[in-house]
Fold this protein.
Amino acid sequence: VQRDMSTLPRVYVTRQIPSEGLKILQDSGQVQFELWDSDDVPVPRKELLQKVKGVDGLLCVLTEKIDAELLDAAGSNLKVVSTMSVGFDHLSLEELKKRGIRVGYTPEVLTDAVAELTVALLLATSRRLIEATHEAKTGGWGTWRTLWLCGYELANSTVGILGLGRIGVAIAERLAPFKVKKFIYTDVAPRPELAKAINAEYVTLDELAKQSDFLSVCCALTPETKEICNKNLFSKMKNTSIFINTSRGGVVNQEDLYEALSTGQIAGAGLDVTVPEPLPTSHPLFTLKNCVILPHIASASYSTRNAMSALAANNLLLGLRSQPMIKELKL
Ligand code: DGY
């Protein structure tokens, strides 16, 4: 029987998302959806503002700012915004709440992938892997030398976590077998349940900076955490410490980080996230050997990205049916 699709709720999908998510939308028979059919360039803002007019649901990724302008352009039909991300700093929660729009997001399914990448980035930075391959390839590899390309090891170290949530715990669990001596963390308040799992001690931000041999940022970007990693923090860190950020670039003051890295205030930094993204190739941070920069790939495994797209699609469909989503943000 041919169904009249034109009566179904309308959805706009802002990206060509991985196939698992698309298939769920297609097979549901519950929505008619239009898609920005590219993964290489984000939908231009002007086009997005046009396309969202009158939609009931929106499935987006982190490159789309979901703010008052966009919500006004969408209009009063919009009931659900589902983002294919765990981060939600691109969503204006206040504006969404004001309009009674429900929000889905994708925590947990990416925790393993992000923790794994964080460990990889930490090791690449502390053991200077990128510098090392470059030297090997470009003729810098002379005789075996006693202190050449030496770095810092995890054994016997103190690892600090700024913002202890699921991802911070998963990182600590993976680092523990490297014989880390002590885990410490800071957050707005102690999180004993999570901390117990990794035997981590709650400390102030100052103490975190002072004690950490490896400092891994795992917090969400909020007005409170914006540029929380600044001169004040870096100046308290040891000059043998490694700074790692796989959360959001906005938690770091990049000028202060550049200063700390270029003056030897800290030993190295590994960043998966920056401001802006992409970081222009002319950015001073790219000139530093002790700074490893990745293009926001922490959750980038095939299985995780498919799981994220499936969760985002299911959240959207459940929301449009006025049912509880699998993962819904409390506004
Ligand atoms: C997120 O989900 O917020 C990441 O930054 C991309 O996986």
The two ends are 41 Å apart (CA to CA). The chain is about 35% helix and 15% strand.
